[in-house]
């Protein structure tokens, strides 16, 4: 989609690795100017070195509301506005059976996966509403649609992201803002994939899931290509959608 995002200003939270970095690469190729945000300056510097002069890095811990507000302010100062927000900084949640999650840890485990995705979307709302336009793309997972042993906490967080995206889309359509959500399963070529596959419980869980991906296990570029499309004028009538990208692991 060369030129599909010409002149667009994109902020990618969680953009220094994995899905976010692949999306930054493809949005740059489509003509956008890109800010990638993440917690680790070293990873941010490496990402910008790879992406080139059309990209810049801003530090942000998306789990912190004040950091999110500052990120939006700094991005607007750098780019003059924000036309696209890709929010995929949900951390690295690992599957665990509910009985192995201490009661005192349960809500923090849910919030650690939920807050970093939905807070940037809320933070950018005033900017996009003032512009009268914008595209927000959140990344959750199919764990929010399909109950799986070991993913009670993760699934609760992912379901929260899905409903947040749908409900926000319904509210902000009057402001010309579109909100959609991508829900992959396992994604090869990401740091999270490698950590999960090295874990005994998660490795067995997702090893079985991979065998169902008869169309091929998803890679970051698959999600990035869909994000570019959803952010583009070609998707101007698409909002409130939650799209599974799983290679056939699930069809929900």
Structural class: alpha/beta
Compute the number of helices.
Answer: 8
What is the string of SSEs from the N terminus onward? EHEHEHEHEHEHHHE
Based on Cα principal axes, name the global outline: globular
* CATH H level, superfamily name: NAD(P)-binding Rossmann-like Domain
Radius of gyration: 17 Å
CATH class placement = Alpha Beta
Main sheet attributes: strand count, strand direction, barrel closure: 7 strands, parallel
CA distance, first residue to last residue: 27 Å
Q: CATH topology, anyone?
A: Rossmann fold
Specify the CATH architecture. Answer: 3-Layer(aba) Sandwich
Q: What ranges have pLDDT less than 50 throughout 5 or more consecutive residues?
A: none
Strand line-up in the sheet with most strands = 3-2-1-4-5-6-7
Number of domains: 1
Please give the share of residues in helix: 40-55%
Q: How many strands in all?
A: 7
* Mean pLDDT metric: 93
Residue share in β-strands:
15-25%
Q: In words, what does this structure look like?
A:
The chain is built from 8 helices and 7 strands. The protein has helices at 18-29, 41-51, 65-79, 103-131, 152-172, 191-198, 200-210, 220-231, and strands at 9-13, 33-38, 55-59, 84-87, 134-139, 177-184, 242-245. It has a single domain, classed as Rossmann fold (3-Layer(aba) Sandwich). It has a 7-stranded parallel β-sheet with strand order 3-2-1-4-5-6-7, sandwiched between helices. Helix 4 (103-131) packs parallel to helix 5 (152-172). The longest helix is centred in the middle third of the chain and has 29 residues, at 103-131. With 252 residues, it is of the alpha/beta class. Strand 5, helix 5 and strand 6 form a beta-alpha-beta unit.
């Amino acid at each position: 989609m060369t030129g599909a995002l010409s002149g667009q200003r994109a902020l990618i939270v969680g953009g220094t690795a994995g899905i976010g970095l692949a999306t930054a690469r493809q949005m740059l190729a489509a003509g956008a100017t890109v800010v990638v945000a993440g917690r680790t300056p070293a990873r941010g510097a490496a990402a910008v070195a790879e992406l080139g002069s059309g990209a810049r890095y801003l530090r942000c811990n998306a789990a912190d509301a004040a950091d999110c507000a500052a990120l939006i302010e700094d991005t607007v100062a750098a780019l003059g506005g924000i036309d696209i927000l890709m929010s995929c900084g949900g951390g690295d949640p690992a599957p665990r059976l509910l009985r192995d999650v201490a009661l005192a840890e349960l809500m923090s485990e849910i919030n650690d996966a939920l807050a970093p995705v939905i807070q940037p979307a809320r933070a950018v709302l005033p900017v996009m509403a003032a512009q009268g336009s914008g595209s927000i793309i959140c990344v959750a997972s199919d764990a929010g649609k399909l109950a799986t042993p070991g993913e009670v906490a993760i699934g609760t967080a992912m379901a929260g992201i899905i409903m947040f995206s749908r409900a926000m889309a319904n509210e902000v359509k009057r402001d010309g803002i579109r909100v959609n959500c991508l829900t992959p399963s396992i994604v090869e070529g990401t740091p999270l994939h490698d950590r999960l596959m090295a874990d005994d419980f998660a490795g067995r869980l997702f090893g079985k899931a991979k065998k169902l991906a008869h169309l091929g296990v998803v890679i970051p570029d698959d999600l990035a290509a869909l994000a570019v499309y959803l952010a583009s004028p070609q998707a101007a009538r698409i909002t409130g959608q939650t799209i599974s990208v799983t290679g056939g692991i699930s069809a929900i």
